[in-house]
Model the fold of this input.
Amino acid sequence: MIKSSHISLETLVDIVEGRATSAELEGAVAHISSCSDCVDTLRELQHVILTMKSDTTQDAPRDLLYSAINIFSPEKRTSLRHIIAILTFDSRVAGPAYGIRSLRSSSRQLLYSAQDTDLDLRVTVQNDECVVAGQVIRADCVSGQIEISGNAGSVTASLNEVCEFTLPAIPLGNYALKIKLPDVQIEIPELELKD
Done:
């Protein structure tokens, strides 16, 4: 390792700011008398430090500084798509299927579409409460969550390996349902659960 014959920058800063020990100061004075590079560096540091100490401008607002720092943050940010799903089928308003023998089902089926994702919901009313179950139909639903929220509060459920879920029983009422996946959040902003 080659050792420089010049005074270190830290020592020069200590000299300018008056923090150098008497031994450092004595050695630096002897060196500076014969080294024009160290003299130039010392003068530049004196100018910079004097400018910094005499600066009376105010700091930028904290939020602005935080925002500016985050622009250059090395962490990878992925954009999360937010999609509103549209109702494509509701068994409650569907007409009878002529030629097919069936009774009225005890559960209501709702189908929603949101770009490359479909959502099949089954709503069953029991004792003035609803049980919402269903399946997210898409290529990838790993680590997905379903959240339903309304005046009565909110509940969540995780998607299983075939993208199915069953939410705990909730009171009748108006709700918003969200499907939270790693790359997209799909929302049904108005879901009326009634008998």
About this structure: The chain is about 25% helix and 35% strand. The chain has a mean pLDDT of 86.
